[in-house]
Amino acid sequence: MPRLLIVLMFSVLFVVSGALLSIPLIVRNPLPIVGIPGSAVFEELNGEVATKLELQVETGGRFALVLTAAGQDPPGIGTLYLRMLDHEMPPLALRSQTNSNHEYRAAGRFPMPGRWEVLVRKGDERQAFRFILRE
Question: What is the band of 22 on the pLDDT scale with cuts at 50, 70, 90?
Answer without folding.
Answer: low
